[in-house]
Amino acid sequence: MVAGKDKPDMDTRQNIELFVDRFYQRLLKDEQLAPIFVDVAQIDLAVHLPHIKDYWCKLLLGERGYQRHTMHIHRQLHGKQALATDDFERWLGHFSTTLDAHFSGPQTEKARRIAAAIAANMERGLVV
Fold first, then answer.
1. What does residue 123 show for φ and ψ, rounded to 5 degrees?
2. With 90 as the cut, is the pLDDT of residue 9 above it?
3. N or C: which end of the chain has fewer CB within 10 A?
4. Interatomic CA distance for residues 6 and 76, integer angstroms
């Protein structure tokens, strides 16, 4: 593993896009989460990944490309298959593992905090 100071920060679109690609590679190998994305949500990566990249660029860089309502999208998914606390914990675990393996710096830590808040808000809003 590369020393923390040698890892890039999540402070450019290019690094955020690299993170999203690596993160989804992990998610889609997860035996619990992959079916949610592939079978239930039936995501088309060519369509989905640019949205997710825009979303994180909005959150971390202030870009304005993402204009969708994430909670509404996840409510629809939850209606097809109930999402559980463990799903959010696994998602967050993959997020953190991907960050730890490839990125370091203030924006990386901001991304980690935002992801934890997103997971907690989604869980609170969806899991009964």
1. -60, -45
2. yes
3. C
4. 41
Q: Tell whether the model's pLDDT for residue 85 goes beyond 60.
A: yes
How is residue 73 written in tokens? 């999208």
pLDDT at residue 4 tops 90: no
What's the distance, CA 89 to chain centroid? 12
The phi, psi pair for 110, rounded to 5°, reads: -65, -45
HEC sequence for the chain: CCCHHHCCCCCCHHHHHHHHHHHHHHHCCCCCCHHHHHHHCCCCHHHHHHHHHHHHHHHHHCCCCCCCCHHHHHHHHHHHCCCCHHHHHHHHHHHHHHHHHHCCCHHHHHHHHHHHHHHHHHHHHHCC
CA torsion sign, 94 to 96 to 121 to 73?
Answer: negative
Global pTM value = 0.89
Position 3 scores a pLDDT of 42
